[in-house]
Amino acid sequence: MTARSGAAGRLLTLLPARKNEVFAQVFTVSSETRWIPENEISCLNLEELSIFRQNIQCITGPALDLYPEELKVLLGGSALWAPLSCRYAQGAAVAELARQALKEKPDAFPAESITIQYLQSHGAQTIAERERR
User: What is the pTM of this model?
Assistant: First the structure.
């Protein structure tokens, strides 16, 4: 994934999980303007997010829209919040990232190892939950 020209610093990405939890990952821009994951994806309670309060230049992800007030208190006001258009994964962007990765390292992603994964939306119900209605 390539960062915008002139971008620098650390980016915190937050995706909603369940029960006031979020998936969190920090990315740092390298000297080649590539975003490098700084940590493994963590599933944290909202209260635990204060560990990311320092040295984050930008925060993005759909959790910003789900917990706006809580995140402002927990993360402070010094980091920029990504605009709405940059908070949600778009199929075209994901496909472009995959294309770039395959182009850069074609042998790193053999076709038989590529799988499609379904990520359940925050408000989605299981089949059992839908049948109970």
Answer: 0.65
